[in-house]
Amino acid sequence: IIRDLAAAVSNYRSQSSLQDYLEQQGQVAISGVDTRRLTRLLREKGAQHGCIMAGSVDIKKAQALAQAYPGIQGKDLAKKVSIREITTWERGTIEIGRGERSLQQAQYHIVVYDFGVKHQILRLLVDRGCRLTLVPAQTPTDEVMALDPDGVFLSNGPGDPAACGYAIENIKILMAKKSMPLFGICLGFQLVALACGAKTVKMKFGHHGTNHPVEAINSQRVFISSQNHSFAVDTDSLPDCLMVTHRSLFDGSLQGIEHRDKPVFAFQGHPESSPGPQDLRGLFDHFITLVKQSLNAKT
Q1: In degrees, to the nearest 5, what angle opens at C-alpha 72 toward C-alphas 136 and 84?
Q2: Strand partners, 94
Q3: Residue by residue, what is the 3-state secondary structure of the chain?
Q4: Euclidean distance between CA atoms 248 and 246, whole angstroms
Q5: CATH number of 78-298
Q6: What is the pLDDT of residue 125?
Q7: What is the tens place of the pLDDT at every residue in 84-127?
Q8: C-alpha triplet 30, 36, 41: angle, nearest 5°
Q9: Parallel/antiparallel/unpaired status of strands 151-154 and 182-185
Q10: Which residues form the Carbamoyl-phosphate synthase small subunit N-terminal domain (predicted)?
Q11: What are the catalytic residues?
Q12: 131 partner at 20 to 30 Å CA-CA among 86, 125, 167, 205?
C-alpha cells in the first residue's frame, strides 16, 4: 500500500519496475492511497480489516468482505508458506560491488525449521560457517535428529503461534535433548515461549517498523531493531525456566528470552533486518557460541 508509484525505474541496480515485480510474484498492491491518513487511523483504532478490489468496484461488497474477514487469530499460516520438501542453502550475504558470498568451509550443520524464513537469516548463518538444511514446518523431530544437526533454528513466519501445535510439541521434544542448541526469531521466539509454558496474546497495534528500540536487560544497552509481529508473549505467563534478556522501550513487551538450564534462546524482532538496523546481529554469533560449546561438550 503506497502513496505514489514511480513511473520510471532509476536505480542502476534495478532489473524491473516495482509494478512488474509484484505482478511476476502474484502479489496484490495498491497505490494512490493517503498513507499518512491511514497511519493515523491505525494508530488510533489498532489493526483493521480491509479489502482491495480491482476492476469494477462495488464499495458495499468490499465493505462486507472486510467486515466478514475473521482475522489471523487462531490461524496456522506457517504451514501454508513453508517449503514442501527438505532442501539445502549455501548462499551468503550480498555486498555491493563484490556480489554474493558462498559457503567456503562448513563448520556446523544447522537444521532450519521453515515457518516462512527470510533469506537474510539464512545468509547470515552461512556467513558464520553453517551448512543449512531447511525442513518443512511439520517435520517430526525424529527426521530432524536423523539429519544429525549441531543446532536447530526456528524461523520467523506468519499467523497465530498458538495455532502451531505441531511446532510447539516438536520444540518440547528438542528441548528435552539438553545439549541441542535452539535459536528462534519472531514466530520462533513465540513458539519457544509456548513450548516452555508461556502464553501469547494478540496485540491491538502490533509492532511494525525498522526503528524499534529494545533494551538488553543485563547490559542496559539500547539497540534499534526491526519488528513485524501482531502477537506477543504474555509477560505474566512467563515460566521460571526462562529469563528475560530484552524488552521493548516502546511498550515494555518481551523481546528476548533465554532458558536458564539449556542452550535455548530467542528474539522477537528481526536481527537480520535487510534493509534495516544491524545492531542485534550479534545474536547470530551467540547462537554459534552455543553450538561450539555443545560440540566441545561432546568431545
Answers
A1: 15
A2: 100
A3: CCCCCCCCCCCCCCCCCHHHHHHHHCCCCCCCCCHHHHHHHHHHHCCCCCCCCCCCCCHHHHHHHHHHCCCCCCCCCHHHHCCCCCEEECEEEEECCCEEEECCCCCEEEEEEECCCCHHHHHHHHHCCEEEEEEECCCCHHHHHHCCCCEEEECCCCCCHHHCHHHHHHHHHHHHCCCCCEEEECHHHHHHHHHCCCCEEEEEEEEEEEEEEEEECCCCEEEEEEEEEEEEECHHHCCCCEEEEEEECCCCCEEEEEECCCCEEEECCECCCCCCCCCCCHHHHHHHHHHHHHHHHHC
A4: 7
A5: 3.40.50.880
A6: 98
A7: 999 999 999 998 888 898 887 899 999 999 999 999 999 999 99
A8: 95
A9: parallel
A10: 1-53
A11: 186, 270, 272
A12: 167
CB 77 within 8 A of CB 117: no
Q: Cell numbers at residue 176, please?
A: 528435552
Query: Which three cell numbers, joined as nine digits, stand for 109?
Result: 550443520
260 grid coordinates = 536458564
pTM of the model: 0.93
Amino acid at 214: V
Burial 34-44 (b: 16+ CB within 10 A, else e): eeeeeeeeeee
Place of cell 521460571: 240
Instruction: Identify which of 215, 157, 219 has the alpha carbon closest to the alpha carbon of residue 191.
Output: 157
Q: How confident is the model at residue 13 (pLDDT cuts 50, 70, 90)?
A: confident
